[in-house]
Design goal:
The structure holds 2 protein chains of 2 kinds. Chain A is α+β, with helices and mostly antiparallel strands. In chain A, 17% of the residues lie in helices and 35% in strands. In chain A, 31% of the residues are buried. By secondary structure, chain B is α/β, with parallel strands linked by helices. In chain B, strands 1, 2, 5, 6, 7, 8 and 19 form a 7-stranded mixed beta sheet that branches. Chain B has a 5-stranded parallel beta sheet with strand order 10-17-11-12-13. Chain B is globular and about 65 Å long. The chains are: A alpha+beta, B alpha/beta. At the A-B interface, β5, β6 and α2 of A face α2 and α5 of B.
C-alpha cells in the first residue's frame, strides 16, 4: 500500500488529504466534502495539467505568441511538451484558437494559440 | 474643448467591461484611454490559465479572457486611443491626455470611470539591504519580459513574497528551464491562492519558506546570491537563522498598490487601507460623476470579480449621465473585529438598488468563524465560514428590504464566533 499527502485545491479550505492506494482500492481521508475525495483520487491516479507557454513568432507585431494545451495532459509529460513548445516557431499572422502543434507528444491534446498576432507592417 | 459623455481611464479588464456595460445601458459617446500599444491590460502577459471560471464557466488564459471583452468593445464600435497617457484629471472632470499623434489634449467628460489598475510594490519600498545589482525584478516585470518580449530573465532564481504573480512566475521560470531555489514569505501564511501553491510550487518541489525574509542581497554588477533569515512574530529577523542561496535573479512579489496619482489630482478622497478611492454603493468617488472599479479601487484576486464590479460601474455611470444623481443620507460602513476594509465605504440607503455587494478582506486566518452585519447596534445577519484568509476576498450582500427599522446611523461588518 502506498500513501500520498496532498492539499486539496477544490476550495479555499485547502484540506490536507491522505490518499492510500492498495492495488485497485483507493481511499481518501482528511477531506470534508465529496469533491475532495474525487480530487484526491484523480490527483493520485491520473494527475493532469494544462500547460501554458509561448512560442517564437516571425514577422509579427509581437515577438512571442502565447499558447496552451487545448485540454489537460498527464502531469509527467509537462517537460516533454515544453521541449516541443520551446523548439517551435510560427509565422504571423496567427489567430486566437489556431492549432500550433497537433497532438503534442502523443497526448491527444493540440497546442493552440491563445492570442492573435498580426503581421508586422511598416506604417507610412 | 472637446466633450465626451463618458471617458474611461484604462483599457484593461476593468475599463473594457465598464465600457461594454455603459454602452449596453445606452451611453453612445464613450472614449477609452489606454497607455499600452493594445487593449487588455495586464491580462496580455498573464498567459497561464484559471481565468473566467465565474464569468464564462470555463478556464481561460489571460489573453483569451481579454480577447472576449476586446471583441465586445470592437463589436460595439466603442472608440479608444492607444499609446495615450492620461496625465491629469481636474475636479471639474477635465482630462489632459498625451499621445504622439495629437500631443497634449484636454477633453471634458460628463462622467469618468477610473480603471487604471495597480502596480507592484518595488524594491525601494521594501527596505532590502545590499547594492543595486542587475537581476532584481518585480515578478510582473519579469512576467512581461518573458511572456510578451521573449527575453530570458535569469537562470537561478529566488523569489521573495508569495503573492500570486510570484507563484505563477516560479512555475513559468521552471518550465523555461530556470532553477527556482525557494519562495520566502514574511508572513506565517501565503499571500497567494491555494491552487497556485499546489500547482506552481508543490508540482515542482519548490520550497515555500513562511516567516522568512531576505536580509542581504549579494553582488555588485549582477546578483550573485541572497541571504534569508527567519523572522519572529514582530517580523524582525532572528539572528543565527541566516541561510545563503546562490542565485543570479531575485523576483519580488510583495504586494500590489492601486495606482491613484490621477485620482489625487482630481481631488478624490482615498481610503488609507485600500489605497483606492472611497466610494459609495454606486462605486462613485467623492467627486460627483467619477466612478472607480477594478484594481485601482482595491486589489482583487480574481479578474472575474473585476469584470463584475466594472460592469456595475459602467451601469452606474450611465444612470448618472441620464440625470440620476441624487445622493442623500449616506450611511458609513464601519469595519469591526477582523475586517481590514470594505468597498464600498458608504451606502446611500434611501436611494440604493435592490442589493449591494460589499467586498472586504479579513486581517488574519480565521477558522469556523462568522461574518456578521450590524445596523447600529442591531444584529442583522450572520454568515458562517469554515475558513477565511487575507489572501481571499470575502463578500456580504446588503439588501434594501433588510432596513426594516428605517435608516440606521451606521453599518458594521465584523468577524465573530
Amino acid at each position: 500500500m502506498k500513501t500520498y499527502e496532498i492539499t486539496c485545491i477544490q476550495c479555499p479550505l485547502g484540506c490536507a488529504l491522505t490518499v492510500s492506494v492498495d492495488g485497485e482500492a483507493v481511499t481518501v481521508t482528511g477531506n470534508t466534502c465529496p469533491r475532495g475525495a474525487e480530487y484526491g483520487k484523480k490527483e493520485v491516479l491520473h494527475p493532469s495539467r494544462t500547460v501554458t507557454s509561448t512560442v517564437a513568432v516571425t514577422d509579427g507585431v509581437l515577438p512571442r505568441l502565447s499558447v496552451k494545451t487545448k485540454t489537460d495532459i498527464p502531469k509527467e509529460k509537462i517537460f516533454d511538451v515544453m521541449e516541443v513548445i520551446r523548439k517551435t516557431t510560427v509565422e504571423a499572422p496567427v489567430k486566437i484558437g489556431d492549432v500550433i502543434i497537433e497532438n503534442v507528444c502523443g497526448t491527444g491534446a493540440d497546442v493552440i494559440a491563445t492570442k492573435t498576432v498580426d503581421k508586422f507592417r511598416i506604417q507610412n | 474643448m472637446k466633450y465626451h459623455d463618458l471617458v474611461i481611464i484604462g483599457g484593461g479588464p476593468a475599463g473594457l467591461a465598464a465600457a461594454v456595460s455603459a454602452h449596453e445601458a445606452g451611453v453612445s459617446d464613450i472614449l477609452i484611454l489606454e497607455r499600452d500599444e493594445r487593449l487588455g491590460g495586464i491580462l496580455n502577459q498573464c498567459i497561464h490559465n484559471g481565468f473566467g471560471l465565474h464569468t464564462f464557466k470555463e478556464e481561460l488564459t489571460g489573453p483569451e479572457y481579454a480577447e472576449r471583452y476586446i471583441k465586445k468593445v470592437l463589436d460595439a464600435k466603442i472608440p479608444y486611443k492607444l499609446k495615450t497617457i492620461a496625465a491629469d484629471i481636474s475636479p471639474e472632470r477635465e482630462i489632459l491626455y498625451v499621445n504622439g499623434e495629437e500631443g497634449a489634449v484636454t477633453v471634458k467628460a460628463g462622467a469618468i470611470i477610473l480603471a487604471m489598475g495597480c502596480r507592484e510594490r518595488p524594491r525601494g519600498a521594501l527596505g532590502l539591504p545590499g547594492y543595486r545589482p542587475a537581476g532584481i525584478f518585480t515578478a510582473g516585470t519579469a512576467q512581461r519580459l518573458m511572456n510578451i518580449e521573449g527575453q530570458s530573465v535569469g537562470k537561478k532564481v529566488f523569489i521573495l513574497g508569495s503573492g500570486d504573480i510570484g507563484l505563477i512566475m516560479a512555475r513559468r521560470m521552471t518550465l523555461e528551464g530556470a532553477e527556482v531555489c525557494a519562495v520566502a514569505e514574511l508572513m506565517p501564511y501565503s499571500g497567494g491562492l491555494n491552487r497556485n501553491i499546489v500547482q506552481c510550487l508543490n508540482d515542482f518541489n519548490i520550497p515555500l519558506k513562511l516567516s522568512h525574509t531576505v536580509t542581504q542581497i549579494h553582488g555588485k554588477e549582477r546578483v550573485t546570491g541572497i541571504t534569508i533569515s527567519e523572522v519572529d512574530e514582530k517580523r524582525s529577523p532572528i539572528p543565527g537563522t541566516e541561510e545563503y542561496f546562490d542565485c543570479d535573479t531575485l523576483l519580488l512579489s510583495c504586494g500590489l498598490l492601486p495606482e491613484n496619482e490621477l485620482s489625487k489630482s482630481a481631488g478624490i478622497t482615498l481610503d488609507r487601507v485600500t489605497g483606492g478611492p472611497v466610494v459609495d454603493d454606486r462605486l462613485q468617488c467623492s467627486v460627483p460623476g467619477v466612478f472607480a472599479c477594478g484594481n485601482v479601487l482595491h486589489v482583487h484576486d480574481l479578474v472575474d470579480y473585476v469584470s463584475e464590479e466594472a460592469e456595475r460601474a459602467g451601469a452606474q455611470a450611465a444612470s448618472y449621465l441620464s440625470g440620476n444623481s441624487t445622493a442623500d443620507g449616506y450611511v458609513k460602513l464601519y469595519t469591526g473585529f477582523g475586517v481590514r476594509y470594505t468597498v464600498p465605504q458608504m451606502i446611500d440607503v434611501k436611494n440604493m438598488s435592490e442589493q449591494t455587494v460589499v467586498r472586504f478582506r479579513v486581517a488574519d486566518i480565521y477558522r469556523d468563524k462568522s461574518i456578521a452585519l450590524y445596523y447600529g447596534d442591531k444584529h442583522v445577519k450572520k454568515q458562517k465560514k469554515r475558513i477565511m484568509a487575507p489572501g481571499e476576498m470575502e463578500q456580504i450582500i446588503i439588501k434594501k428590504d433588510s432596513f426594516t427599522d428605517g435608516i440606521p446611523d451606521s453599518i458594521k461588518v465584523c468577524v465573530e464566533d
